[in-house]
Amino acid sequence: MVAETTLAPEQLVLPLFVREGASESRPISSMPGVVQHTRDSLLKAAHEAAELGLGGVVLFGIPEHKDAQGSGAVDPSGVLNLAITDVVAEVGDALTVVSDLCLDEFTDHGHCGVLTPDGRVDNDRTLQVYAEMALAQADAGIDMVGPSGMMDGQVAAIRGALDGAGHADVAILAYSAKYASAFFGPFREAVDSSLQGDRRTYQQDPANAREGVREALLDVAEGADIVMVKPALGYLDVVRRVREAVDVPVAAYNVSGEYSMVEAAAANGWIDRERAIFEVLTSIRRAGADVVLTYWAAEVARLLTR
Ligand code: PBG
Predict the structure, then answer these.
(1) Residue whose CA lies nearest to ligand 1 atom number 8
(2) Taking the chain (306 residues) in consecutive chunks of 10 residues, what is each chunk's mean pLDDT?
(3) Which sequence spans correspond to the domains of the chain?
(4) Does domain 9-304 sit in CATH 3.30.70.260?
(5) Contact (CB, 8 A) for 227 and 237
């Protein structure tokens, strides 16, 4: 009767991975219960997400071939663009289909952008590629793009490209305050990342909360429809501060490392798995997140409606 915070399926968004050329789904060893899908098993998972009443799914593609430019990302027959068309056709009327809009899964160096000759991430040339990627995803039928690369000006570049090509209806879920985090570790296995080194020249310093709020305000000014804080658990203060600073919905990403820590502890019998999952997600909601991206979305929806 007096609970201040609710958890409901429509507040949850499920990240899904699809692997090019896969003939059966492959487990991700550092994320027990999460798989790299085939084109077919992806559709089954998306269909289930819709049946369970989830708010949305976010699609990540794992290409067979990578190159320095990440060209699979802008190729209309690239794995992610084909998956977008499949999933939107299957469940597009029932939930929001979001695409990852970033180059790291497609580049052989594993960075989120293209590089200069001396090996630095080239922010402004990357914006041009993101604009092209947004158009490829829009042509494939996407509802909402999720730029996760943390290039400066990415929301404005993508909004401009979409509007200029008649895709004013495609929304933007902006990864606004995305911190250079060790908690993305298991995700690197999930997408077969080739990254050497780290992303500290473009992701945020975990020491900075004010800067996270500033990044969110910039994204709203550039046209973001939803702003996101990522990771979630170590950054609940940032979630709260962003919630108070903006008037668009706020999302938080309960990332791979947060998932795997609970799964590993539970597998050892050290914590009560279900209670821990509900406590984690309720805490993220209590901090002010309207929407939570979580690998537990389908399971929690099932438990909520049983
Ligand atoms: C980049 C991207 C990452 C995640 C989502 N999008 C990895 C990174 O920035 O290194 C991490 C998600 C997770 O850890 O669950 N495209």
Answers:
(1) 184
(2) 97 98 97 97 98 98 97 98 98 97 97 96 98 98 98 98 98 98 94 90 97 98 98 98 98 98 98 98 98 98 93
(3) 9-304
(4) no
(5) no
